[in-house]
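For concreteness, we quote verbatim a single protein encoded this way:
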Amino acid sequence: MKLLKTLPAAVMLAGGVFASLNAVADDSVFTVMDDPSTAKKPFEGNLNAGYLAQSGNTKSSSLTADTTLTWYGTKTAWSLWGNASNTSSNDERSSEKYAVGGRSRYNTTDYDYLFGQASWLTDRYNGYRQRDVVTAGYGRQFLNGPVHSLRVEFGPGVRYDEYTDGDNETQPLGYASGTYAWQLTDNAKFSQGVSVFGAEDTTLNSETALNVAINEHFGLKVAYNVTWNSSPPDSAPEHTDRRTTVSLGYKM
C-alpha cells in the first residue's frame, strides 16, 4: 500500500491521531504483562484507536483499534483482547482484519506459571476467512521488577485455518513466545514481543511498541508489527506483512 506516499497537505485527522497501515495478517502478539504477583489493582484495561481520512482528488480512510482487559487474583490473571483495522481507497476496501482472544495465567511459584490462550482471526484480504488457535503450556517470569519485565513461555497447540478460496486445514503446532518491557521513564514504556507458531505453515509475529503517557488516563502508542508466514495462501502470496500505527490510548 502506498497510501502515505500520496497524502496531500490537506489531511483530516479524526481524534487527533494518525495511523498508517500496510498489509495485515497476523496472530496478535500478547505483549501485556499479566503477572498477578506484581499487579497494583484487581483490574487493568486499555483502549487505543487511530483514524486517518482524506478527501478531494483521492478519497481514502484508515482505521485501527485495539484493547486489552486483564483481571487479577492472588495467583491468577484473566485477559481478554481484541483488535481491528481496515483501509479503503475511493470507496473500495483494500484491507480488513478483526481478531479477538482470551488468556489465563496461574502462578505456581514466584517465577513459574501455567497458561492457556485462544484466539480467532479473520483477514479475508490476506487469504484467511478465519484462523482459530488454541495453545497451553509453561512459562517463566525471569524479570518482574518495576523497571524491567521479561517472560518466556512455550507449549503445544492446535490451529484451524479456513481460507477465502474455500479450503480448510487443521494442524497441531508448537508455540513459543517472549515478551520484554522496559519502563524508560515515569511516562514512557518500551515493549517488545515475539511469538512463533510452528506448524506446516509456520507463523512468526513481532510487535515493537512505545507507550507515552499524556496524563493519568490518556497516552500515545507507537507500534510496529511484523508477521511472517512460511506458506501463505495462494490468494495472498507475500510472506511478510507489516503494520505501523500511531494511536491515542485510554487507560482504564
Notes: Confidence is low (pLDDT under 50) at residues 1-26. Residues 4-251 form a domain with the Porin fold (CATH 2.40.160.40). The two ends are 34 Å apart (CA to CA).
